[in-house]
Write a structure and sequence with these properties.
8-stranded mixed sheet; 7-stranded mixed sheet; single chain; binds uridine-5'-diphosphate-glucuronic acid; alpha/beta
Length: 532
């Protein structure tokens, strides 16, 4: 067994089996000689110092771009590619196509240090990297199954274009077993050159809006591999993060002290499973909190006090227990659905996950019910939607609960005015009939109601006294529980949140409208109906 050393990446290739695939012994010998005497040292010279590698990233979406930029910041030489020519042009010109805190500055310093470049030519990127990160999207089809066509096509491209051994790292979120399938496809397409490739699964756990911070301060790095050398190489790629030898672009030397990052080595299918199980568990936790909120509403308890006390138990933990409009985004809804599909395919009915999914969908109807109860008829009412992104600190509106709320409002004939710090451009493309306002107060001008859909800081600090003067009716449905009932009552707002009771406005309380009951007892109604 011999091992090529490309830079400091021990690309563990079994020379004998590599040669077996070659048709003639001399060709093989020549290639080995060329590699060890000429190309290898050249790669060494061209590449960087300790553990610095040439890395390619395929797919410049959220995961790919953050991964590429942060790996460059960690010292690697990175080439990113995407089929979206406009996106690559923007990146090449120094722009940032997505909103992600700190990404702009990380990209800027990587460009300045000449450690990152962009290309629309996948072959160029595939040839450049010793390690290739696959970060393409796996959208769900109509029936909920994931669409692997982009990943399969990539396996073919990598097999055709690679001219030297590669570690191919699957980072797209793929259903369990897809990582193994990708490996099988790559090897099949590579045919006699299969030994050029090793495949690893390296699921990402970054959150949008906190992705750069999560990249540099992960809880764990999972390496799903089929051979030990792939784990060694992945560890080398992340060594500066594991050993905390990087200049943090966020905390300027003052990083919060966290526990040591664990490097978890598993096989590929377990790595994919870890990703699905983690996302689905968090989604489950949110839906649990939301059902709890429903119960609290019925019995007059405050869900925030309940979940806060629950979260003090370290076995439960305080995070992902916030009730409200529920989860959205590209990850949770897709992952939950794909995990349900996967379990069904092996004969397991993942009933609790299905329940979590339907609890999440119900949030939208509950929110609209609150609005209907207050306004009675929605047709021709002006409703202000505050927040479009699926959560704060992102411009991502995919599967955003806010968009579902808007869809229903428009269907019922309401006029919608919307505001969001980053999500307006993307929403405009879907709902051109909505009017968009950078200033949230403008969005609330003349409104019969405001619905808070996203937990942006901006909406946490709104001046409701000012908003109240602009609105036609002081009515707020708070889908993210950002305000206090007391404060809203003091400002004479009619205020509804999730799992924390209802606040009638002060004037409603002072001047209750006595509506005489038409039917005191439902049994009477039945009798009356029968009598008629
Ligand atoms: C999620 C996971 O948190 C990441 O670990 C994972 O890497 C990522 O998916 C992914 O699979 O790529 P993300 O979708 O960016 O990250 O956002 P989260 O912060 O997890 O929030 C997801 C949704 O849940 C948002 O709509 C948020 O508003 C909602 N949420 C979150 C709640 O309704 N309540 C909570 O208590 C927490």
């Amino acid at each position: 067994m011999a091992t090529f050393i490309c830079s400091n990446l021990p690309l563990g290739i079994d020379l004998q089996s590599w040669c077996n695939g070659r048709c003639d012994y001399f060709k093989c010998k020549f290639r080995i000689a060329a590699w060890s005497w000429f190309i290898g040292p050249m790669v060494d010279r061209r590449s960087l110092g300790d553990n610095r590698l040439r890395v390619s990233v395929i797919g410049c979406g959220h995961v790919g771009l953050v991964t590429g930029a942060c790996l460059a910041a960690a010292g690697h030489q990175v080439v990113c590619t995407d089929t979206d020519a406009a996106r690559i042009a923007m990146l090449t010109a120094g722009g940032v196509p997505i909103y992600e805190p700190h990404l702009g500055s990380v990209l800027r310093s990587a460009r300045k240090a000449r450690r990152i470049s962009f290309t629309t030519n996948p072959a160029e990127a595939i040839r450049a990297g010793q390690a290739i990160f696959v970060c393409v999207e796996t959208p769900a089809r109509e029936n909920g199954e994931a669409d692997f066509s982009a990943i399969d096509h990539l396996a073919l491209q990598i097999a055709q274009e690679a001219r030297s051994p590669k570690l191919v790292i699957e980072k797209s979120t793929v259903p369990t077993r897809a990582g193994a399938e990708f490996r099988r496809s790559l090897f099949a397409y590579a045919n006699s050159r299969a030994n050029y490739f090793r495949v690893a699964s390296n699921p990402e756990f970054m959150r949008e809006g906190a992705a750069v911070s999560d990249f540099f301060h992960p809880d764990r790095i999972v390496a799903g591999v089929e051979e030990q050398s792939a784990a060694t190489d992945l560890r080398a790629i992340y060594s500066s993060i594991l050993e905390r030898r990087f200049t943090c672009p966020i905390h300027a030397g003052n990083c919060p002290s966290t526990r040591e990052v664990e490097f978890v080595v598993t096989d590929i299918k377990e790595a994919d499973l870890i990703k699905h199980a983690s996302d689905s568990f968090l989604a489950l936790k949110i839906s649990y909190a939301n059902v709890l909120a429903d119960i609290c509403e019925k019995i007059g308890a405050d869900v925030e006090r309940v979940t806060r006390a629950m979260g003090l138990d370290p076995r439960i933990g305080a995070q992902f227990l916030k009730a409200g409009l529920g989860f959205g985004g590209f990850c949770f809804p897709n992952d939950v659905q794909a995990f349900i599909e996967l379990s069904a395919s092996v004969g397991i009915d993942f009933a609790i996950l299905k329940a979590a999914e339907s609890v999440n969908k119900e949030r939208i109807s509950l929110c609209l019910d609150k609005l209907r109860k207050a306004l009675w008829v929605l047709k021709d009412k002006r409703v202000s939607v505050l927040g479009l992104a699926f959560k704060a600190d992102t411009d991502d509106v995919r599967f955003s609960p806010a968009l579902e709320v808007i869809r229903h409002l428009l269907e019922e004939g309401a006029e919608v005015r919307a505001s969001d710090p980053e999500g307006m451009a993307r929403t405009k493309a879907k709902f051109p009939q909505v009017s968009y306002h950078t200033d949230p107060y403008e969005a609330m001008r003349g409104a019969d109601a405001a619905i808070i859909c996203t937990d942006w800081d901006l909406f946490k600090t709104l001046d409701w006294r000012r908003a109240g003067k602009l609105m036609a009716r002081k009515l707020v449905i708070d889908g993210r529980n950002l305000n206090s009932h007391q404060a809203m009552r003091d400002l004479d707002f009619e205020y509804y949140s999730f799992g924390r009771g209802t606040t009638a406005s002060r004037s409603q309380l002072e001047n209750p409208v006595e509506t005489p009951a038409l039917i005191e007892d439902p049994c009477d109604a039945v009798v009356t109906a029968k009598a008629i």
